[in-house]
Amino acid sequence: MEGNIAQMGQFIGAGLAAIGSGAAAIGVG
Questions:
Q1: Is the pTM of this model over 0.90?
Q2: CA angle, corner 9, sides to 4 and 12, nearest 5?
């Protein structure tokens, strides 16, 4: 169970990073 939570945390972190970089690209563009 804890392993699944940690894995979800990694996916959420990657998703936020992708959204953040995408928003930054839009802001710069």
A1: no
A2: 125
**Span 1-29, pLDDT tens digits:** 688 988 999 999 998 998 988 888 888 77
Instruction: Name residue, tokens 């959420």.
Output: 12
Neighbours of 15 (CB within 10 A): 10
Whole-Å CA distances, 27 to 17, 18, 21:
15, 14, 10
Q: What is the DSSP string of 1-29?
A: -HHHHHHHHHHHHHHHHHHHHHHHHHHH-
